Amino acid sequence: MRAPIGAFDDATPAPDRLDLLIEPVAAAVRDWHGDVPAEDLLHVDTDPAIADTAVFTEHYGRDLLDVSANCVIVAGKRAGETTTAACLVLSRTRVDVNGAVRRHLGARKASFASMEAATGGTGMEYGGITPIGLPAGWPLLVDAAVAATEWVLIGSGRRRGKLIVPGRTFEGLPGAVVVEGLGV
Questions:
Q1: Among 133, 123, 122, residue whose Cα is nearest residue 174
Q2: Whole-number Cα distances in Å, 184 to 51, 101, 111, 141, 168
């Protein structure tokens, strides 16, 4: 099947590629209950050596930069309490950690989580973290621009492979809140 974005000729419904998904993502796809059918979550097999956005879009097409989203893990702190959250923004933007994230989490200070905290907390590979299959109870802050994008390219939980999903999918994920101006 041809993907709805990019030049991928091997797009396959994610439920048919559970063998290529890391366990938290595979479990989320297996137990899918979203408004978007699981068959609309598409997996494309890609080279893990070029998983980072800049190199990936250089290889697979610069037009993908406008429809690619990055999922980053942040930690908000207030009065000795830490809240871990995921933020999803278009790749051509950056997460407004000290503004939108800090305010939304009610944190005194917010920062990007360390690589060890991000991978250990999600069970996913660095460079492939995705909002699908995040730990229960984690807030997922989704930039409004991502939710409004028809098809979005995101990580698959691994550096190998990507998921292509309708933007409206993210609004229905557990803990998701759409935030205007999350990506700046």
A1: 133
A2: 22, 12, 16, 14, 20
CA atoms of 132 and 153, how far apart (whole Å): 12
What's the topology of domain 12-179? Answer: YbaK protein (3.90.960)
Task: Please give the model's pTM, rounded to 2 decimal places.
Answer: 0.96
Residues 164-173 have pLDDT tens digits of: 999 999 999 9
For residue 163, give the H/E element and its range. Answer: strand 162-166
Average pLDDT for residues 7-25, to the nearest whole number? 95
For tokens 């993502």, what's the residue? 25
Give tens-digit pLDDT for 50-94: 988 888 988 898 899 999 999 999 999 999 999 999 999 999 999
Contact 119, 92 (CB under 8 A): no
Encoded tokens for 67: 């429809």
| Residue located via tokens 């994008």 | 149
